[in-house]
Design goal:
Blueprint lengths: L8 H10 L6 E5 L7 H9 L4 E6 L9 E7 L5 E7 L12 E6 L6 H13 L1 E2 L2 E2 L5 E7 L11 H4 L3 E4 L5 H9 L5 H9 L33 H12 L1 H4 L1 H12 L1 H14 L5 H6 L10 H14 L5 H8 L4 H12 L6 H5 L2 H9 L10
Parallel strand pairs: 1-8, 1-9, 2-5, 5-8
Antiparallel strand pairs: 3-4, 6-7
Helix pairs in contact: 1-2, 5-6, 6-10, 6-12, 7-9, 9-10, 12-14
Length: 363
Amino acid sequence: MSALYNVSLNEAALAIRATAGEITTLVQGDMGWGKTSILKMLAEQLPDYIPIYFDCTVKDLGDLAIPMIRKSEDGIDYVHMAPNEELGVHLVGKKLIIMIDELGKANPSVQNGLLRLMQERQAGSHKLHPETIVFATTNKGSEGVGDILKPHARNRITILPLRKATNMEWIEWAINNGIDYALLGWCKDNPQAFASFEDVADPKDNPYIFHPKAAGRTSFITGRSLEKLSHILKKRKLMGENVSMAMAVGTVGGPAAADIMAHVRIGDQLPSLQSIKDDPANAIVPTSAAAICMVVYRALAAIEYDWVDAWMTYMGRLDKEAQGMFANGARNPSFKKKDIVMNNRKFGAWAAANGYMFSADKV
């Protein structure tokens, strides 16, 4: 039943903010799908807070605090524990966002040492600002990568199961973050690459994803590996086909690399951006649906004020599905260049004439 209530990254960030003063949330999800990015998301939403990253995987008990000798007013020596700077408790009076990363992989003594911080917002004798946010992340135990929490630790926190992004959710993020447009086109056509292994009984049924039963599958698709693959694709002409393919295989695995690189070669046949800017009425219009999809995603990623008019002329030569794909992408609230398109006169005229299309699926 719990699988019915898995949440997205945005929903996880909302839950953490809403319950910050009373609850420490442990976000538990698949490897490589953005758990750590929640800290950045919260920092952007709360600019008056200081983000603090605490990596449990490299800590031992002595890394939490070290003893120091102090003297009382009566001149009696006593031991005072000085906490690790990475916990941020020395920032007295400041509102913090403390992310305890990879809690499930922490040394048991480190987990125990962090319990008071998570339960009471206090490290030793140091009390945190009452509005400080504390949350933790970890992988699913079913992945078999060593995430273990004892019952007394679990009872002090609220475990929030995080689902993977869908292919279209990831594309929304990718458009705003410079991901290679050809890769976006492949992701749109292959939603199975974003499936959870928990929904795939036989790993042979989905060769793209991580699966704990897939012996020897050392490389696979995650949001993280897709981003790395984007960097490889952008340097493909410099490295050559053989080296690029070798690196792609080592990043997302053989089956995904073969399919993605075949798709990328279609992108080599696209009209150049410059031809669309200079002569939108005559620039080449691809004949395949995959190539048209790439043209649209490339435009969303690259669009600027000075060529929206040219793009609108060119877009009018595409089929209605492609036009709707661009319009819904441009209207998405998370699209960073939304104002560039929405304030354009030609786009406004197109929207007025094609308003019925805005009920289509978002990019």
